[in-house]
Specification:
394 residues; 15 strands; seven-stranded mixed beta sheet; homodimer; 12 helices
C-alpha cells in the first residue's frame, strides 16, 4: 500500500457491526496538518459532522476517528455528547487537543451510537498505528460496499516527491439508512491553508458531486483533506504551477474513488460516463448531464442494453437548460444515433446496442449551443438495486 | 358510461399499434367549446403539441384527434407536417375550421408517424361517433397502461345538472419512449373562457403534477378541458360560488384519474400518499413532499414494507426546504414513528410495518415550522418497474 510521509493508520473491532468485522478506524498525522472539508448539504446533519465542521474550519487537524455500522444521525443531544466524548477520549490517548480531532460515522440512522464500545477500542487503535495500513482503513469503513476503495498519485516539486492518498466508501449515492459517502485525503505536501479548501471543493464538484447511483444525499457525507507538509517541499501557494500539480493530483485521486463508488453502486452492472457538451455554459452542461444520469428510465434502459435515445433526449429536455431540439446530437461511444434531433437510422441503433453490452461506455450529448461541457458518471438501475434497498433492514 | 351533453366519442384501428387494438380516438363537441390546456414543460416538445398549443390558447376547440402507438416526437419537419395534415383532414371531414382541431399522440419517440393510416381511419371515426363511447376512448389511448382511466362528477347550478367527465392515460410519470400523460376533460357546463385556464392549472398542480412514478416528464404530456355550455346553465363566472363548484368537480375528476395513474404505475404494488405539513408555506411543503415521493430509496423501502423513516427524514433534509431536524414528526397512517426527530421506539416501528403491508397508506411528515401543507402521491419501486423499463423495446 502506498504510504504518505508522517501519516499512520489503524483499524479495530468495536462490535458496532456484526462480530468479526473491523468497524472503527483511525488516521493520525505525526504533526498537526492543514486541512479542509466538504460536508453534506442535507439539512438533517449527523452529530459527527456538527462536531467536526467547526474544527476543520479552524484549519488544523491531526487525527480522524471513523466508525461504520452506526451513523450517529437523528440521535439528538445524546448523539452529540457521544461524538464529543469519543473525540475527547482519542485526544487524551494521543495527547493532543480535542480541537485537532475529526470524527465521522456511517451506518444505521436513528439508533444510539454504542459509544462505550467505540471508546474502549481507542487504546487498541492507538497501539496498532502503522504507515502501511491505509487499505485496512478503507476496508473498515465499508458498509454495503462490495470492495474497498483507495487511490493515490505522486507528483514532484523541485525534485521533492509528494504523495496524495485517498480512501473512500460509498455504494449508493446515497442510502441514508446504512451507507453514506465518506472520503479522506492525506498528503505529505506542504500546502498553504488558503489553497486547500478551493482545491478540495473543485475536485469534489468534478468527482463525488458528479456521480449518481440513486440521487439521494446522506446526512453523513464528508470529505476531508489533510496536508502535513512532511514531504519537505516549499509550501505550495495559490495560483502557482505547483498548485496546478497538486490540484490535478487531488482531482485524479477523487475521480478514481468516485468512479469506484459508481461501479460499486448497489446492484450496478455498468459504469456510464455522460459527456454533455455544447451547452450555453458549464453549469447548464452539468444540470443537463445530471438530468440524464439520474433518470430512472435512462438507467433501466442501460440495464436493458437498449440504445433508447428518446429517454436521453427527453431527460435533457426536462432538465430546464436551454435546448434547441433540432440541433441535438447523441453518441454511444463513437456511434452517432441522433443528428439534429433526428434518428440516424436503425443500422446505427444496432451498432449502438453493441456499445451498451460493454461494462463501461460513454454517452455524448452535444447541444450545439455553446462551449459548456460537463461529465457525470452513473450506473444502470437493476433488479439488484431494488432487492438490496427493499430488503435492506429485514 | 357517463355522458356529457353535446359530446360524442369514437375509436378505430389505424394499424399504428399491434393489430387487433384500437389506436386512434376522436372527441367531438356539437358546437365549438371554450377550452384551456396544460402542456409539458419539457423543452423537447412533440409535433402535436406544437400544433395544438396555439389553437387551445386561442380559446375555442371542437374536436380532439388522438393516436397511441407513436408519439410523433423527435420527428422534425415531417412530424409537424403530419400533425397538421391529420388535423386538416379531420376538419374537412367534420366541416369545421382546422383551428378548432386539437391533436395528441403517445407512443414511441423518433419514429415517423404513419400518417396515411391515421388519416384513412378518420372516415370510420366520424362514422361511429356516439355519446356513450368515452370509455372506449380511454381504452384506445392506452400504451403501457394496464387499465383504462375515466372519472366523472356532476354538480348543480340553479337546478341545472352539469357534468365533468375525464379520460386519461399514463402508467409511469413518465416513460417518454412509449407512454406519456394525456388527459381530456369534457364538461357541458357553460364556463367563462377566462375561468377555464386558472381552474385547469390549479387542478393539474394538485393532481397530475402531484404524482410521481419515476420523476420523468414526457415530450407529449397534455391535459385539455373543453366546456361546450350544452347543459344550458348561466355561464359560470370567476370568483362566484358556481366557480367553486366547477373547480371542485374538475379537481375531483383529475385527482381520481391521477391516483389511477399512480396505482397503474409500472410495476407498482402500492399507492402511497405523502402528506407534508408544518412547512413554512405550501410551496416549501410541495418541494419536500416531492423529494420524499421521488426518492428511489424511500420507494424501494415501501416495496420492502420497511418503515424506514431514516430515508424519509433524509429526503426531507436534502429537499432544500427549511427544516429543524429536532422538530420533525413522522407517521405511517396513525402510527407515529418519529417525534422531535427521534425514534418513538421499536414497538411503534413494528406497528408501522403492519401499515406498510397495506396496498394503500399515508405517510405524514410534520415539520412544525408553519402552516404550509401539500400532498403527493407515489408508488413503490419494484422489480417489475425495472423489468418493464429495461425490456421495453426488446
Amino acid at each position: 500500500m502506498t504510504e504518505v510521509k508522517g501519516f499512520k493508520f489503524a483499524v479495530a473491532e468495536a462490535a458496532i457491526k456484526a462480530p468479526g468485522r473491523n468497524d472503527c478506524a483511525l488516521i493520525v498525522s505525526d504533526t498537526p496538518a492543514n486541512c479542509a472539508g466538504v460536508f453534506t448539504k442535507n439539512k438533517v446533519i449527523a452529530a459527527p459532522l456538527i462536531v467536526t465542521k467547526p474544527r476543520i474550519a479552524a484549519g488544523q487537524c491531526q487525527a480522524v476517528l471513523i466508525n461504520s455500522g452506526n451513523a450517529n444521525a437523528c440521535t439528538g443531544e445524546q448523539g452529540l455528547a457521544d461524538a464529543r466524548a469519543s473525540s475527547a477520549e482519542l485526544a487524551a490517548a494521543l495527547q493532543i487537543d480535542a480541537s485537532l480531532v475529526a470524527v465521522a460515522s456511517t451506518g444505521v440512522i436513528g439508533v444510539p451510537l454504542p459509544v462505550e464500545r467505540l471508546i474502549s477500542a481507542i487504546p487498541t487503535l492507538c497501539g496498532v498505528l502503522a504507515a502501511d495500513q491505509a487499505a485496512a482503513v478503507a476496508d473498515a469503513i465499508m458498509t454495503t460496499d462490495s470492495f474497498s476503495k483507495t487511490a493515490s498519485r505522486t507528483f514532484e516539486i523541485e525534485g521533492q516527491s509528494c504523495t496524495v492518498l485517498g480512501v473512500a466508501k460509498g455504494a449508493g449515492m446515497i442510502h441514508p439508512n446504512m451507507a453514506t459517502m465518506l472520503g479522506f485525503v492525506m498528503t505529505d505536501a506542504a500546502v498553504a491553508p488558503e489553497l486547500l479548501q478551493p482545491v478540495l471543493r473543485e475536485a469534489v464538484d468534478d468527482s463525488f458531486n458528479s456521480i449518481t447511483v440513486d440521487g439521494d444525499t446522506s446526512t453523513n457525507d464528508m470529505v476531508l483533506v489533510l496536508a502535513n507538509g512532511q514531504a519537505g517541499n516549499v509550501e505550495i501557494q495559490p495560483q502557482s504551477e505547483e498548485a496546478e500539480l497538486f490540484s490535478a493530483a487531488v482531482l485524479d485521486v477523487l475521480l478514481e474513488l468516485a468512479k469506484m463508488i459508481v461501479r460499486d453502486g448497489e446492484g450496478a452492472t455498468k459504469l456510464v460516463q455522460i459527456d454533455l457538451c455544447g451547452a450555453e455554459d458549464d453549469d447548464q452542461a452539468k444540470i443537463a448531464a445530471r438530468s440524464v444520469a439520474t433518470s430512472s428510465l435512462v438507467k433501466t434502459a442501460f440495464f436493458g442494453e437498449d440504445a433508447n435515445w428518446g429517454r436521453i433526449i427527453a431527460a435533457v429536455g426536462y432538465s430546464g437548460v436551454e435546448v434547441d431540439p433540432n440541433r441535438i446530437d447523441i453518441f454511444f461511444d463513437d456511434i452517432q444515433v441522433v443528428r439534429d434531433g433526428l434518428t440516424t437510422g436503425a443500422a446505427d441503433e444496432e451498432l449502438a446496442t453493441q456499445v451498451l453490452k460493454q461494462a463501461e461506455f460513454r454517452v455524448t450529448v452535444d447541444l450545439h449551443l455553446g462551449d459548456g461541457c460537463s461529465s457525470y458518471y452513473t450506473s444502470d438501475l437493476t433488479y439488484d438495486y431494488v432487492k438490496i434497498n427493499a430488503d435492506y433492514r429485514t
